[in-house]
Structure prediction request, 667 residues.
Amino acid sequence: MGGQVSGTLTNSSSQWSTGQFFNAYRFEASPGQAVSIEMRSEQFNTYLWLLNHEGRVITVNDDRRGQTTNGFTSEIIFFPPISGTYFIGASSSDPMEMGEYELILKTTHQPTQEAEGLFETVFGSLEASDFQFSTGQYLDVYTLEGEIGESVTIGLSSSGFDSYLRILDSAGNVLREDDDSGVENDDALIENFVLPESGHYSVWVSSVFAGGTGDYVLSLNEPLRSSRSGLDIRTEESLKLVLSNKGMGEDFADQGGILVRGKGQPFANANRCKGSTDAYTAKVKICIGDREESLSGTVSLSGPSGIVISPGSMSFTVSPNSCVTKSPFSITSASASAGVKSITATVTGLGSDSEDLNVVDVELKKGGTVVNEDDIVYITDTPAMPQLKAKIKPDALSGNADWMLNIEFKRPNRNDDDTLSKTVSAASEWNISQDFGNHFYGGKATLTAKYNGAECKRIFHIRGTNPSENAATTEIGNSPWYAKAIARHESGTQQNRTYLQFNEVGSLGTNYLTNIKHTPNRSSDQKGWGIYQLTKIPPNGRSPSRDEVWGWKANISTGKAVMNSNVNEAPSYFAAIQRKYPAQYEAPPATYTPPGTNTQLTYLEAAALQMFNGSSVVELLPNGQGGNSNYRSCWKFYPNNPSGQKWEFVANQNDYVKKIIEEHENP
Prediction:
């Protein structure tokens, strides 16, 4: 194979004895080449095998080194020791997993350099023509031979890039790796590594940053000489404070400030959200030179108001020509205001060192009013969504902010969960109201801003405002003539008013399940919504949309459309009855007056009106196209009854026609 191929693990793929399916691929490779094999999938946890021409396993990989995603990428970097055929096994981590994947094979010219012995200093350079990882770092490779039990110390220093060292066995397994254990914080150092067996080892020289290039000095079992000054860096006395995200081990910041990263990943600015309880882990590295005695003392950390550091100090002892690291110091900024906060480490006699962390905050406003945590904002009676704008604080930040607004409203028979997202300059506002467009949303809203490693959230709540009764009646109009009566009857009366899209009763609060005031007006059977209590909307019986639940004009528009649809549908029942009983058919009564009322309806008006609430008569009748269809009405036909007695009005279980006419006569 070569390049990129797409594949699928299925139950017809080959299968390992442990239950995982796999597909095999063959390629040719020779010494002097660097081979990169990458497998990606969004459907299962990938697993790569590399085998020689005899089918013996050379190496395997589950998750790519430094990977911080969900583990669905595997990667093998391989330097062939001999020319020949090699095999790739594209598989899964767990048994019986199946799905689609991409397999990428890259082969480039990359001669390895053999160290002359276990005591050597090498001057080299990372260049754009070198082998490049899929994550963007360039690579030089050195080989050495060693005996079991031998101790190896390897140092790497560069003025052009942040150094990263790995030592691997002959199968390509990483045995030890390091980023910044050298005294210069950009230098890498693997100290006193004991070789586990005799044979061939590889030393990988690369950078932490993607695209890092420049000259370097590689030392094997010799004092590491700095590429910056030519001085033995172990004799430099220094104090260095570095910070990392909690849980990221030894992945600390570089010399230029508190820049947090994962292994092999680009730097991300050190930002924390206002109110966040997430901690930074700080370490302080203390180094002394050629003194006669060890140095003992206390290193203390301090910060401005709102910054909590625990513990505040630690005791240390460091021997001549060596370093000691004191950690962990836990730093939280939950009570700090937005802005740059300086953290300072101090050792009497050696001085101090500081790092900055940036506390950022989400500012959300409705018009000119700040929306705080758990505040409630309202859809207006126009209706219009609240005029919301969001911004990252403090002002004048560089770069971009990634925004996301999730709005959920999950009730019985509803599962609304909507997300809006946008990337804008961190110095600018996100005009959320523009992205609402003409749509309506309500419920629990979670606003998230991601900015240079910080993820800040603001939870607030959206509720609705009812229209005035005059606005509602104007919107409904006079066609059909009973439309207002249906609206009043369906929405009911609360607090001496009707035309209710939203509840006027109940408690007001953040839990829309129990605090129902200003949430959408829902029927007692938990199916109908809004002014017209919309349920199954013709022609396909769909549920009301989010706009019809939260927007009163959309609710009225759909309610009237349903009424008009019923008006158009009502005559079809009588035509179908006539097709079935052509000899017995006679016209239905011209009018119908519900008992106890004074309003006469035509037989079609009565049928259409009752259909809004559910028909009482449903029959399978000829459809005029050679088949039968269900037709609905409120009129029952008795073909064998005497003339004048063939039709009967059948009220539904709610006696709906009568109730609507009573509402019409007594508004």
About this structure: The two ends are 79 Å apart (CA to CA). The first strand starts at residue 3 and ends at 9. Confidence is low (pLDDT under 50) at residues 66-71, 115-119, 222-237, 244-269. Residues 75 and 616 are 67 Å apart (CA to CA).
